[in-house]
Amino acid sequence: MRQINGQQMLSTGEAAKHLGVSESTLRYWRHVADGTGPKSFRVGKKLVYYAIEDCEAWLNEQYESSVTA
Q1: In this structure, is the dihedral angle defined by the CA atoms of residues 62, 6, 33 and 15, taken in order, positive or negative?
Q2: What is the chain's pLDDT, residue by residue, as a tens digit (69 residues)?
Q3: Residues in contact with 30: Cβ distance below 8 Å, sequence separation at least 6, in sequence order
Q4: 3-state secondary structure (DSSP) of residue 30
Q5: For residue 10, what are the β-bridge partners?
Q6: What is the DSSP-derived secondary structure letter of residue 8?
Q7: Percentages helix, strand, coil for the chain, rounded to the nearest 5?
Q8: pTM score, two decimals?
Q9: What's the distance, Cα to Cα, between the start and end of the chain in Å?
Q10: Neighbours of 51 (CB within 10 A)
Q11: Which residues fall within 8 angstroms of residue 10, CB to CB, at 6 or more apart?
Q12: Which of 38, 18, 43 is nearest to 27 (CA)?
């Protein structure tokens, strides 16, 4: 895990494992760029990182939108 500006960052593989999805699913979500997955950012052409806080926020949004009473 890396830190940037005091935030813990996950690689695509680490984020996929944290979220319980495949790396290809994360790549697809980035490709469709409609807010389907958590926020990500690029460093150069190939490196993509996810802030662990953004992954947690995205998981919470998924929980809130799918919980039934």
Answers
A1: negative
A2: 788 888 899 999 999 999 999 999 999 998 987 778 999 999 899 899 999 999 999 999 999 988 876
A3: 37, 40, 48
A4: helix
A5: 50
A6: E
A7: 50, 25, 30
A8: 0.84
A9: 37
A10: 19
A11: 1, 18, 49, 50, 51, 52, 55
A12: 38
φ, ψ for residue 37, nearest 5 deg: -110, -175
Residue 56: DSSP 8-state: H
C-alpha gyration radius of the chain: 12
CA distance 39 to 35: 8
**CA pair distance 38, 19, nearest whole angstrom:** 10
Pairing of strands 41-43, 47-51: antiparallel
CA geometry: angle 16, 9, 66, nearest 5 deg: 45
